[in-house]
Structure formats: C-alpha cells, structure tokens
Predict the structure.
Amino acid sequence: MCGIFGYFNRDGLSLPAERLSAMGAAIRHRGPDDQGVFTAPGVAIGNQRLSIIDVAGGHQPFVSDDGQIAVVQNGEIFNHIELAQDLARTGHACRSHSDTEVLLRLYEREGIGFVSKLNGMFAIAIYDAREQAVYLVRDRIGVKPFYVHDDGRQLSFGSEIKAILQTGMAKPGMDVEALHHFLTFNYVPAPYTMYQGIKHLMPGHLMKVTRQGSETRAWWSLADIEPVHGRAESDWIEEFNTILDDAVRLRLRCDVPFGAFLSGGVDSSSIVGLMARHMNEPVKTFCIGFDDPRYDESAFAQEAADRFGTQHVMEKVNPDMLDLWPMATYHCDQPHGDVSFLPTYRVSALAAKHVKVVLTGDGGDELFAGYDKHKSFFAQAGLAELNDEQFQRRYFDSISLFSPEGKLALYAPELRAQLASLDSFEVARPYFQAVPHQDRINQALYLDMQLLLSGNNLVKPDRMGMAVSLEARTPFLDYRMMEFAFRMPGELKLKNGETKYLYKKAVAPLIGDRLAYRKKQMFTVPVGEWFKDSKADYAQQHMPTDTSFSPVALNSLCADHISGAANKTRELRALIAVSHWQAL
C-alpha cells in the first residue's frame, strides 16, 4: 500500500525538484515509510511507500537492468508468489520478494498485457523509455484511486488529487457538471471530479501516454460475465465458499502485523471466521461502539469475536464526530455526503495503533444485494410490467438524492440556466445498457458496483485508512468472486424479501444463524436528529456560500428540516460536504 505520483511532459521539460518533492509530500500519509522517484528528461514516477511486503527489499521504483523501464504501484498483488514462481521458470526470476518487482519482470516478459494476470488492488505507473511512453493502470473495480490531469502538454497523475495540485498549476475551478451529478448520487461519479480538468481513471482501464497524446481502453469488464441458470443451490454455495476462503487466504500474505474490522455483520464476521481458519494465532479485530443502541453494533462484534477467539479491541466513542468532517474531506479531495466516513476514520485510527493492514467486508452488499434499498425497491408492485427504460429510470430515481427539479431549485439563476438540460441519468444509462443479458436485480447491482462502490464505498476504507497509514484489503472484491457473483442469477441474491439469500445460507454454518440473519445496521451517526436541535446552527452555518447556490433555497431547506416539515437529513449532509470541500 502506497501513494504514487508523477508526470509526463510532451515537450521534454522537467518539473523543478521542489515541485516533484511537494507531490510526494502531499500524500506522505499514504506511505510514510519511504519515498522513491525515478526521473528522466520530461518524466518522473514516484512512490510514497507503506512497507507491507518485503519490508527490507521492496523499495520503489523498480528499474530494469538497462534503465529503460521503471515501475511504481499503489496497492498489493495478492498472487505475486505464484506469478514470481512462473517468472522464475521462464528465466525472469525476481531478486526480491516484492510484488512490485513482479510487475517489472512481467512487463519485461509480456508487455502491458500482463495486467490480466494480476489478482489484487492496484494503481500502477510504468515508464518505458523505449516507447517514450507512460502506462497508467487501475485495478478492476477501483479499490485504488488514480487521478490524472492532462493539459495537452503535460499529464500529471497521483493517488490523490492533492498531489496533482502541487505541480505548479493554477488551482482549477469547480466543475459544475460534477457538482450536478454529486447532488444526484451523493458522491462524484468517475470519471468526473469536482476540479475542472482533473479526471478519475476508470476502474478496469489503462491509459497509454505518449508525446502524441494519450489513449485509454478497458482491460477488464464485469459486463462480459454471462449468467448461469439451472444450477443447484448447493453447487453455488460450494463455489462461493471455495472462492471466498481462497480470497481471504491470499490476503493474509503480509510481512507486518495485520487484523480485521469486525462489526458483527455478516460480511465482517464471515471474513474474520475464514481468517481464523487459516491463522495459527488469534485474529486481531477492531470495532468502535456508541452509547446509542440504534447505532451500536459492538455487542454483535463481541459475539463474533468470542465465536472465533479473536484478540478483540473495542472502543466506545462519542458519536458526535462532526469536528472530523473537514479533515475527512481533505483526505477525500472531494465532497461526500456519507457521514459514515467519520466513524470509519475512528475505527481506522484505532486499528492503526496495533496493525498496518486490515481485512474488511466491503463489496458484499453490492455483489449480493445486501442493502435494504434493494429489498424495498424490488418489493414494489408492477416492476415486471415496466419496459427497460422505465425500469432503469425507476431504479435511478430510487437511488437519487435530489430530483432534477430539486437540484435546479438550489441553483442561482445563471447556474440553473447552464445546467437545466443536463440529465444525471445519462451517467447511469451506459451501465444499464452494458448488461442487457443480466436480470434486473443484477442490472441494479451492476450499477451499484460501477458507481456506488468505486465512487463512495471504496473511497471510505482507502482514504480514511490511508489518513492514518492503514491498508484495507477487500476479499469480496477478488476478481473471481466478482465474476462468480455476476454468473449467479439475481433471484439467488434477493429472494422472498431476504437480502443476500444464498450468501447467508453459505456462511451460516461458519458464523451461526444469529449473525448471518441479524437485521442490518448502517454504520453511521444520527446527524439528522442533531440538525433539528443541538446542531441546527452547524447545518445553517455550513451551507455553501459561493454564488452557485440560491441562499433563499438553502435557508428554506434548513428551515424545513429544523421545523420537522420534512426530513432533509441526506440533502443537508450533501450540501455541508460541498461547503467543507469549498473551504479546502
């Protein structure tokens, strides 16, 4: 786990050394253990390292013997041992135990096509002097972030936007299209960012940058997976358990102390249960608790910890974490209306006192229909009678924060006129169109995988973990599990109102029925209640103040919530998030 940064100048001009150093310093929290930079005329690739694998021998960049190829990465390649063994058999033996050296040797042997062999989470930059090119590669589902800015003459990149802003460029203005989409999704969907001209490299894509320009292509697509029908539940359960067990096993490869987040929910309990099977010592597990029982899961976490004999650390915390919000926004570089970033930071900080790596249950809900929104949406009458366009719009509307009319009402007249014809559904439409061969449950889940997961739910463990130099690993997002999940018919995920239907059946023998079938709780804090009374001033004082918004509309939104006329919790959270971002 690290942070990467660099640039490619098409005129062969080099950044001043202090600018390059500032790029690394901006993301030092991602990798405080070491820094390494490779430079050539007009190009640099750098790494801030959090030493996890081959602590002594894993310094980056890795450079070929002839000095023509240099590689850095942010992330981990979990099958690096098997890949290194294969390389050795063909005369490309590695000299270290680092997974990053494996990337170099694979590229030397095969070129950029090697990425399809990787099982991991990664953002990779490769400089090839022979081609006068830089390759930028992002993992299949976007566990690791990768931002780029290309003004035609110079392309700059980084694991976080703040690294790009250190190149000496004028700070970009707000991308109002990104703002418009943010107010629909509650996060900024890739490839948009809130900064004009800075884009997020899409998951499963790679970019080749040369003096002539750049080209981007997909190297993996979940949409390519074909569903399988007529298979016995027992066969699905056996394959599910086999894949998840091996995904956990691979993610235990670590040369530093590691553990797991444990909430007592089905996802984290399953991961910890499988970790316990593979380890000869107690799993280190971490959770935070609240005094308010509506939001406190610590009793369930303790139950799971007792079941698997973990070395469990629980800390009761004050749910009022609003003072952390500006800091969380700084680490995200963009607004997020999801306040669960704040408790995620607190549990990450707790874990970081003891370990450098944690396994998490992220991805299980999006793959296997685990949210209450899935149950409530598909319980609606008349869905089967809708045509494809009507179904897609209905699901899109169900996950939208503001309606189109609600967004326009917030804007000042000039921005309202500029954005009146911009439909955020067009962000979602291509994802629906990519999977006509899937049933409607899987179509909805595919949209969640491509937008919600990479746009928000994976941002939480990455940015909040990296804020305290903690690596988060996600066994459910092993590519084999993702491909398995989209071979599985939706009716085995959401059945008779039961979310994660087959998944729960598969893990119940491991974690017990009580944990497998407990009511899902959201990892959040009750800001909506606070905004009505004790924190009403906070909401009013942290509305956006720039000229993009109508003060009258913002005041009305606050007043409606405070008076109880309407529950505007989520809308207020999103607008407060914009305000915190504007203050960066």
